[in-house]
Amino acid sequence: MLDDTLLDDPSRLADADTGGWLRAAARAGAQVRSTAEAAAEAGVERIFSERPRAVVLVTRPGHSVAVANVVMALLGPGCSVPVVLADEVPPWVGALDVVLAHTEDPGDRVLAESIDRAVRRGARTLLTAPDSGPIAAAAAGRAVLLPPRIDVPPGFSFPRALAAWLLVLHSLGLLKADVELIADELDREAERDHPMHESFVNPAKSLALRVADRTPLLWGLDEVATSVGMHGAGVLAAFAGVACDVAGYSQALTRPVLHRRAVQGTSGADLFADPDDEPGSGLVRVLLLAVRQGPVADAVRHAAEDALPGADVLEPAVEVAGGDAVSAALLALRFELAALYLGLAAGTLGGNPY
């Protein structure tokens, strides 16, 4: 049962947040900044200055999957080199390639073997991971290892991994990303979402209340937004036990029953309807996510808003400048904090969420 009064009671929030999760999420900007410092000390700009034959993004359990999806979407189909997502380093990787990996599990032996394979074949490799265990041993002296410098609980490493991968891709000339600006905007977002701010002026608390007791439909209006929606679904499940539907809007249109329910739920036609009258129908909350800007993005957004006039639109670019990477990082953090607020208010957070 959701206790929405807890959200506007900082003292009770602090008592409920036994794991320090809100503070951990709010340190996203610090994670990005410290990762940039570590990358500079490790010589990332020099090591990754030449354009590769291919880039391999290794996806292991945890946030690396979400980070890889966001990075792939940011690069887009026009990327000048092939980008491959794989659970393990492929056997064809060689000295002309770049390998990026992330994990919070220092004992992931599959990843340790992949890192060993990559460096033995001469691939330039960067890894964000703890500096102990088999993975660190595999990387020692042969790969760029960026261990965490900001202490946060497991499950809060998304900004660190994203920053590291963006720094490499920027150095390679494949993607423009201002990591310092991302850190600054994440700090500002954390301030806007501070527990002391009441729900009506706190974007994360407002988002938590909007999806409470609903099935969130996280429908992206562009590929970057959809990838961030996948991260949003992950943290809502991890911290609040909420299951979401995630899809690009064009894909959502191919789900006629769910789309019809979304239309009904946003049109106001069923304002006084009793959801119990239709067993199993449930209540949905449509969140249209937008990151990219431009004529194509505007056309998609207008079409979606016409079909779903009561849908919530989350569009960070109207709040901040700096490009798609900044907007994606900000939206990801807002989802994390909203999921935490929802989990705390619903009582689903009372121990380690992972």
Strand content: 5-15%
Query: How many helices in DSSP terms?
Result: 15
Shape: globular
Percentage of residues assigned to helices: 40-55%
And the CATH topology of the largest domain? Rossmann fold
Keywords: Isomerase
GO molecular function, one term: carbohydrate derivative binding
Protein name: Phospho-glucose isomerase C-terminal SIS domain-containing protein
InterPro entries: SIS_dom_sf
Short overview:
The protein is of the alpha/beta class and 354 residues long.
Describe this structure in words.
One of its GO terms (molecular function) is carbohydrate derivative binding. InterPro entries: SIS_dom_sf. This is Phospho-glucose isomerase C-terminal SIS domain-containing protein. This protein is of the alpha/beta class and 354 residues long. The chain is 48% helix and 11% strand. It has 2 domains: 23-179, Glucose-6-phosphate isomerase like protein, domain 1 (Rossmann fold, 3-Layer(aba) Sandwich); 182-346, 3-Layer(aba) Sandwich (Rossmann fold). The protein contains 15 helices and 9 strands. The strands form 2 sheets. Strands 2-1-3-4-5 form a 5-stranded parallel beta sheet, sandwiched between helices. Helix 11 runs parallel beside helix 15. The protein starts with 9 loop residues before the first helix and ends in an 8-residue tail after the last helix. Residues 275-280 have low confidence and may be disordered.
